[in-house]
Amino acid sequence: MNPRQAFFACLHRSPPALLEAALWIAAEHEPQLVPGQLLEEFKHIQQQIGGSLPSLPASELGQPLLRRMNDLEFQQDEYLPLRPQAALMDKVLERRRGQPLALALIALELAQRLHIPLVGVNFPGHFLLRVPGADHLLDPCGGRRLYPNDCRELLQRQYGDHLKLKAEHLASAEPRQMFQRLSRNLRQLHLAHDDLLGALVDAERVLELGDGNAADYLARASLYQRLECPNAERFDLERALLLSEDPIQRLRLTERLGHLPPANKVVH
């Protein structure tokens, strides 16, 4: 079983093995990585946090869990520009620094093992968490509570005044959605550091996870363009054209397709 197959096997378990799945993603980029070894080491973190939580009902332990993680120096990676290690789980566990989504995946794994109710929230620009039924969200980077006004302010800081808070921004995220977001993050981080092949690995995973949008196909098409693979580029541009609802983007895609050599004329 290769790392990609092992990743999907983790998602098919009940419940899904979130931390192991994230480690198999890292293993696609680092062939020497042994996820089982890191999972054994993770038990020590679980014991540290589980043994120091207050004596409260499980439904009230979400925020203490995140605060205890912060005490153990699991914090948001503030290094700019961000590097792929901010989203590669083995590096996040080693450095105890990562993107909010990576920290949230660790928190969700701990919550699952410690029987604490906690779910992910696919908030734009900054992944969040929620205790089911609570009237607030939780920041995985320290455990701060966020009420609706806090969420509006966070959205405004990320995107400006033009993006208004919607109910869909506060919806719970399924495991596939979380890992598709993680894969998009890694795709962008590898691309930003000129690792085209690494970005392509992530771009393929994004689409294999399902429900890829026009931007996902366009992102992979651009990678194929830089890697001089015109047949693959053409396929993804055609998919992006079918999925796009933007007339201007559709026009540009049509023009770009017109500049590619015909599929049957490409010589390898």
From TrEMBL:
Transmembrane segments: none annotated. It comes from Pseudomonas piscis. Residues 40-183 form the Protein SirB1 N-terminal domain. Belongs to the UPF0162 family. This is Tetratricopeptide repeat protein. It comes from the Bacteria. It holds the Pfam family Transglut_core2.
